[in-house]
Amino acid sequence: MTPMMATGDVVNNTVGLDLSNDVTGLGTSGRSRLHVFARKARKHAVKPAQGGGPCLLKTKVKDSSVQSATKMATGFSSASNPNAITKQLRRAKAARRASHDAALAAFQQDMASWSKFHAIQTLSIHVGVAWSQGTRDYMEDKHVVTHHLFPTCALVAIFDGHNGAWAAEFAAAHISPLLASNEHLQQLAHQQNPLEPPDIVAIYAILQAAFLALDDDILAYTIEHDRRDGATAVVVLVMNSMVFVANVGDSRAILVRVACHQDPSTNLLSHDVERLSVDHKPNLPAEKARVLAAGGDVVFSGCWRVTHPKASVRLAVTRSLGDHPLKGTSAKDKTPALVSAVPSIRHFTRRHGDIVVVASDGLWDRVTDEEAMQQVVDNENISGHCEERTAAALVEMALVRRTCDNVTVAVLTL
């Protein structure tokens, strides 16, 4: 599998790619193996009708009931009213538990309303999507499944909005028309011969250009209307036998694949998991170096964040769509361009039985790649829409583990 770009993709993902490594096997880096009967994951260090994202500026805030109770508690002097503070904190915890329990119950009682199955016949692909608003008062995750971008090309994408849902809604509505209108991509999708390295480089450039075009439009609108919306994004483009994954931020995609060998001790097939995206976090060394070199700073405040003395916001990701106060485009803040919209991109040749799991960080903050793989393995032999059931099971797992975020999961059987 072709390695993902590191610091170089800040400038151009198409430069310096070694496309000769696009083979059917997986590399050993970033990979975990799971045996079929293992029940525990190994421990390792146009707007869509349905969809649904995280809180203000990717900040994992508490529920409003918890916040207000905590504020009330801190209004007392700990020396004079320790019992009052204790009572308020207990009430806050109880309110948070009740909120999580209500979100889980709502999802479990009407799971059919929060999930959907797609059969993309021309490519023999099945897609299951599930989502939940969680404990939030709003839904900022948006997803899109485009069956026929071209006759031999399909798209699945998740956009995780912050500081409002508008950026995610805009991106979800425009990503497919934007790519479908690209004549070069259309020509590549219709050609009969396998894609050559120059073709793959061209698709990388097309995907990057699409991300930057979305970003430009979102920035223009939010600046004009005095908004600060932003969104992370993960896009999966299936073109004949090739699969391309592009992302900004911490929405993630993983590949679950049957290993090329059997476990000699059990004679059972094993599964591998490999991450297909990059979590663009401020503490990632390459991302931190880029932010610092651009004149920004990385600070810890609940989590690692990008900031600047002149900026009105702190952001928990280093790449996104929108977020003009940290893009060097805001006349009000006049900050340097600290956050990038250039995506990390990867591709591989699909095999029969490959499964890709795509999700917003509402899942990945509570579920590891290996645990997601285990859920895939547990459900892959269930008859009838197993992709939808797996997606719903993963959303349920995040809710059981008390995620505070919106959650959206898509499971693709290739």
UniProtKB/TrEMBL annotation:
Domain PPM-type phosphatase: from-to ranges: 126-414
GO molecular function ontology, one term from the record: protein serine/threonine phosphatase activity
Family matches, as InterPro entries: PP2C, PPM-type-like_dom_sf, PPM-type_phosphatase-like_dom
PANTHER family named in the record: PROTEIN PHOSPHATASE 1L, PROTEIN PHOSPHATASE 2C
Protein name: PPM-type phosphatase domain-containing protein
